[in-house]
């Protein structure tokens, strides 16, 4: 590309003067006529108008087709992500049905009392229960060990001792957790009796509260008083379930604290067991965290674990002595821990917890399998954690929750002495019949064929047959035993199938998704980075071929799916659509091959862009590089600034050299300044200190942080103004918008956050309600001015130029009277496109700034200046055609994602941003606000990407639209490669210990970013070009 | 816009030439021996460096400076311009050919005594100018801001002793030369290769830090210093033998 030397890029442009009077009717008429192509000069005005009209239509058509092409790319990304997600993200539909006390699924005749007082589906055994969870109680912590003991051995002995000495009073069994073994997921499993998957598709938007039928819900329905002591996770799952006076919850966050929670639980638990207090509650939940925290902090083989286990032993012995004989005592671990004391994955050590049931009634037994003593290892006679729900439900006389898939634990029902087969068969019949109910409803809701459950249904039929015979032949007890066997087999087989449905990755679907995403990367790479004909020439051909072939592909698959319903599912037609589109693109590319060069980097800058993107992508295969992504982004941005500084030194022209060097240095320093804002993820501990909020375990800002938006509001408009003044572009719309609206808007946001802090800390003597209202009105006003007023200004505003017309004048000189021709001066000519388009960036800046917390507002302000500095670096070093500009924008987006208090984890989503401008959850606005908060940095950089091509370019530069399209495509390429890499790694590492904690959330982040960036890029960046070009063409004519 | 014929080239046209080692046998021998000695010593110091980075890096400064000065004095031609910047350097860059740096020294080696003084001056310049600047750059790249000040300063000092000291010795403080150096447009030779290698090595040295291997040597700034030494070693030879005369091109 030929570039004009700086002398020709003066901010003030003086076109050749033209004869003829200036008409007042059109302010810009003079320059318009000047700027029409030389070949058009001298033609009559009407001709020029016709030509201009034709060019305008040409531009609008190519612009329209370009949007169509980008929509295709979006479609490919969406289809690829859909197919991968379908196979990868294990999802389960949550059914809202609840089991009823009066409607048992299986008719036991007179044995079903159907009342809460005697028992719903089965006569109850206990009135009250104390349920104690010792977090991370691994099975081998509880059984005697005869070799050389570790610290965790032989410390907690009471469980084994009681189960051995009085089998009628207690039993101890391995208690196998279903992964993921995090406490929250485990509590869901322990109370609903089902398998929590990574995503349970429910009806709630943000909360974690359990909405499906569960044991606690049933107990509350029956009017029982529930008390909870310990880990506060219970309260986010079961808000409002517990008796407010007796319940004491403790923060589960601080894993370094081994004592606060445990001491609190014990302190309140023991008094509640005394005879004068037992009347106050029905079911008591105690959740101890000390053992888990000792594991996290020191590992299991450490004296701290030992003393924690001994403490638990003491507590349990005390509880046993205090208990009355109507009460059931349950002690369990919700998961185990690995050798380092951590959990979350699915290794044996993490899933093997312990379960112990105790009562003074002496109703338990062992008879059904002849084994009396607790299993020596967790590999023998284990029960599933989901089995607890039906067991407790039936023991306490509750209906079994609707979604339960577990079976009653035999030891609890078999009875002391001779096995009571009839009782075993009837509790299993109840559980089995409920599973059967659930399975029909689930199949119906999800459109599953009943045939996949045919094997277990066979067992069920056999069991029913034996049951009927047993009822008829009362003397033959062995028939009940057969029925019990068959019912158990039915439950196990159904569970296996459900596990298969929810816990088995669908590899072909994942591969299809990856293949489509990889092809889409190829398509975008070719489109963005191969030099050749302008996009205006190739896009129509691409678009027509992709659409026709895609339609053929999709329609033909759909036809097959309709004719042969069993062979392929309907959504396979999307695959046909994508394949057709990719095929169409490839076809055109092969035909036009000679006109293109392959998309390989041709300069150090291009290579730098490739190295940044690829090394980051490869790094996502490692959990360490994924965890430390924020620091890596800083290093990459620094590298860019470092190289840009060196490159700028090579500039021969002084002004350009100083501009490039200073902007590179500013970019470098601002990156480091922004990096001071951090919100550490759990895995970064203890090498990271969060600064985003007032302290590491608060989520509100410190008072001094409120100054950050204020300082940004004062400085940012001034800084933006200096960038405009460099080309004398601080004219027209810019003065009003940047100088007034943006400044006021930023100040308003700063005030909003002060009010928010005042609300949190009750600084003002004002009612909460009126303060909230002021906040919401202010926020809506600001968002309205950003999007409504801002967009209107952008659409109808004039370019940021000023035209000075000096009329023809006679001047007396020594040589006599000289006629000075009429002259026209255009201020701000050198950056017509850039300065006008940047106004759109400020609109989005304003909205995103408001939605960030104070610290994040500072980061977004820095991002805005960094974008401008990048544009100057790109311009002075003539890099607008290389990939480095859009890729660095992409890096900036990723970097500031972290600097605005986010991490690639679900827990770091700032849900409360939905309530900045809304009182309640309102669709679609609440999710949009959360997206603007979460991906604000990426959105802002995407809106800014056309500037890479537009900044300081002459108004009628040929192929400008094509350059913008390529810049946007390059940015999409960066995010698409990141998405492809995280997708591939998540799929490849699907059995990795850290899948749920690291790889899966990173994949979900990348996919969400790609979809967001696609949509913003198409609708905002490309879409708004139409008005930008039209407004400039009004002055300078169409190119 | 139409193209205008450009009166001046837009980019700096470098006039620097590759440096050659002094034409004596001892210079040719020592220039190969020197990096091997330094790397061997580094290898044996490594366990102590891991155990206590600050004190080991500090204690190593004097021997390293000593070795580098010896290397400069024995092997390298000294700057002819001395400490006076060329007054014409900014005037007509295309017309002047500054080959005398390498040429003059090559023709007649001066006495050892007269070469020690510029070497000491180079050391002082290197400690007072480039070490603080590199510390700032390290921090900008993400080095700990508040906690590891001495680590950063010593790490930067090692980089500048290895990479920058010989450049001061051979190019003096000529403004034009230093503009070419900071614009990274010198031709490759063993001196320039050494600096490029030290910088690239330090950059790559950051790669293993985040890994969760829980090794003692992953701590700041051990990997950076190690990367610096290895990169310097490799690029010194690569710059002399494979890349000699080539320049880094951005576009």
Automatic annotation (TrEMBL), chain A:
Q: Does the keyword Endoplasmic reticulum apply?
A: yes
Question: Which GO molecular function entries does the Swiss-Prot or TrEMBL record give?
Answer: mannose-ethanolamine phosphotransferase activity
* UniProt membrane topology term: Multi-pass membrane protein
Indicate where this protein resides in the cell. Endoplasmic reticulum membrane
Q: Which Gene3D superfamilies match?
A: Alkaline Phosphatase, subunit A (3.40.720.10)
Regions crossing the membrane: 63-84, 501-527, 548-568, 574-592, 604-625, 631-649, 706-724, 736-755, 776-797, 834-851, 858-874, 928-951, 971-989, 1001-1022
Query: Record's CDD domains?
Result: GPI_EPT_3
Stretches with biased composition (Polar residues) = 16-29
Provide a GO biological process annotation.
Answer: GPI anchor biosynthetic process
User: Where along the chain is composition biased (Basic and acidic residues)?
Assistant: 1-10
Name the domain of life this protein comes from. Answer: Eukaryota
Q: In which pathway does it act?
A: Glycolipid biosynthesis; glycosylphosphatidylinositol-anchor biosynthesis
Q: Which UniProt keywords apply?
A: Endoplasmic reticulum, Glycoprotein, GPI-anchor biosynthesis, Membrane, Transferase, Transmembrane, Transmembrane helix
Annotated region (Disordered), positions in chain: 1-29
Q: What is its main location?
A: endoplasmic reticulum
Record carries keyword Endoplasmic reticulum:
yes
Q: Which family does it belong to?
A: Belongs to the PIGG/PIGN/PIGO family. PIGO subfamily.
Put simply, this protein is called GPI ethanolamine phosphate transferase 3
* Source organism (scientific name): Letharia lupina
Q: What lineage, starting at the top, does this entry show? A: Eukaryota, Fungi, Dikarya, Ascomycota, Pezizomycotina
From TrEMBL, chain B:
Q: Which GO terms describe its cellular component?
A: endoplasmic reticulum membrane
Q: How does it sit in the membrane?
A: Multi-pass membrane protein
Superkingdom of this protein's organism: Eukaryota
Cellular compartment(s): Endoplasmic reticulum membrane
Give the transmembrane region(s).
Answer: 32-51, 116-143, 149-170, 191-211, 217-238
Which of UniProt's keywords are assigned here?
A: Endoplasmic reticulum, GPI-anchor biosynthesis, Membrane, Transmembrane, Transmembrane helix
GO biological process terms, semicolon-separated: GPI anchor biosynthetic process
Q: Where is this region: Disordered?
A: 82-112
Q: In which pathway does it act?
A: Glycolipid biosynthesis; glycosylphosphatidylinositol-anchor biosynthesis
Query: Tell me, what's a Pfam family for it?
Result: PIG-F
Q: Where is the composition biased (Low complexity)?
A: 82-93
Protein name according to UniProt: Glycosylphosphatidylinositol anchor biosynthesis protein 11
